Structure formats: C-alpha cells, structure tokens
Amino acid sequence: MKGERRLVRRRKWKRFETKGGAVVLLNRPYFNGWLGIKRVEMGPIVNISMGGLAVQYVENKKRVGDYAEMSIYTPGEGIALDRLPFDIISDYEVARMPDGKIIRNRCVKFGPLTTYQRFQLEQFIKNHGAKCMEDRRQGADRRKIIDPRYGDDAYKDTFIERRSGVDRRERS
Known about the structure:
Layout: E1 16-18, E2 23-29, E3 37-48, E4 52-58, H1 61-64, E5 69-74, E6 78-96, E7 102-110, H2 115-128, E8 129-132, H3 139-143, H4 153-156, H5 165-169
Antiparallel strand pairs: 1-3, 1-8, 2-3, 2-5, 3-4, 4-7, 5-6, 6-7
C-alpha cells in the first residue's frame, strides 16, 4: 500500500567482537541467596555492546533454565562483570552436531545497570573489544542512527536521507 512504511528497528549501540575468550556464566542463587550463588557456564561471547550481548552455547538442561543474572568471566583475570540483570531477546538454533547436540545462539538485553556496572561494562568493551562489527541493515537505515556513546562528532550532523525506488517515483 502507498504511504505504509515498515517499522525499522535501530540499534542504539555499536556491537564489538571480543578477544581473550570471554565466557558468560549464568547465576542462580541457592535458597534465595542465603547459601551463595551457583554459576553455570553458558559459552563464549559472540559480540557485546552497552545494551546487550550474544552468546553461543551447546544446549542442555542446565543452560535452558530460568536465570535473571549473568556474569562475564575472562581467563586469567577472573570475573570481569558480576551479577548483570538481563532479558532474553532471541534464542535460535545455529547448527546440529553429528552426535545430536544442538548449538544455539542467545541474544540478551541488559536490564537496569548501576552506574558502577555501566562503568565496568564500558571498560570491558574498551579492553576486550576486538573490532566493531558491520551493520547488515540496508544503507538508508544505517545512516539514520545517532550513537551517543561511540559516534563521530564530525559525522553526526551530516546524515543523508535517501529515498527508495518507489519514493523517488512519487511526486512531492
């Protein structure tokens, strides 16, 4: 239909691949936290941003449970970020192994973080972020993003608005 435009989801933060083998640990409290926290290793981080992360894991009963907090562990350094609240955005199958195991990819959005947790997350991205991932959305959608944290000040005000083929043919 004319005039209808599809809703475009925009990312607020740039995503970074990680280096150093950072791993996500899921936290589950024993008896409402009275006896400590049980940590279950999820898998390696695929990419991370200030808003959330993606992690790949081999599916099993321990990893599928209902968790509210996670920690990020780096080998040699220990736990870099502890008790981050999160919500699951998507969880999908990536591959099936010949032995029947399923590899899945889970994308999570961080919940409300404290100021100290945000600071720790920013430092983690600076220290362990390997490179900025490419955005695979179409060009017109990419140009509309204003990234307040990592944006280039010289480029911020020079966004180009391009019209699609149908919009070009319409008379204003």
